[in-house]
Amino acid sequence: MARDVATLMLCEIAKAQHLVEAADPEGRRQAAHGIKGAALNCGAEALARRAAELEIDVDDTRRRDDLLTELEQVHRALLDPASEGASGG
User: Fold this and answer.
1) CA distance 33 to 55
2) Rounded distance, CA 25 to CA 55, Å?
3) Is residue 16's pLDDT more than 60?
4) Are 83 and 77 in contact, with CB atoms under 8 Å apart?
């Protein structure tokens, strides 16, 4: 079951990354809002914080890049749970 959840989360992360990178400002805001809620439900506080920052200012490329970096860290942690603490998440 845990593997199924991780696989689902990996798919959702890929979708979220695409939306954050490619969407118009309203699409980025909606993606950031969704990521924030999902992250809070999973206890991924750093990811939720980055998403909330982008949700406030969807045109800020630094905030977008920070969120994408955090998504990538979560992605790597799901692929290799032993590395989870390495990012300082």
Assistant:
1) 6
2) 10
3) yes
4) yes
Question: What distance in Å separates the CA atoms of residue 51 and residue 28, rounded to the nearest whole number?
Answer: 10
| CA 82/CA 46 separation, integer angstroms | 18
Q: What b/e readout covers 12-38, taking b as 16+ CB neighbours within 10 angstroms?
A: ebeebbebbeeeeeeebbebbebbbeb
Q: Which residue has the tokens 């692929």?
A: 79
- Measured CA to CA, the distance from residue 71 to residue 59 in angstroms comes to 18
User: Tell me: the pLDDT tens digits for 17-75?
Assistant: 888 888 899 999 999 999 999 888 888 899 999 999 999 999 999 999 999 999 999 88
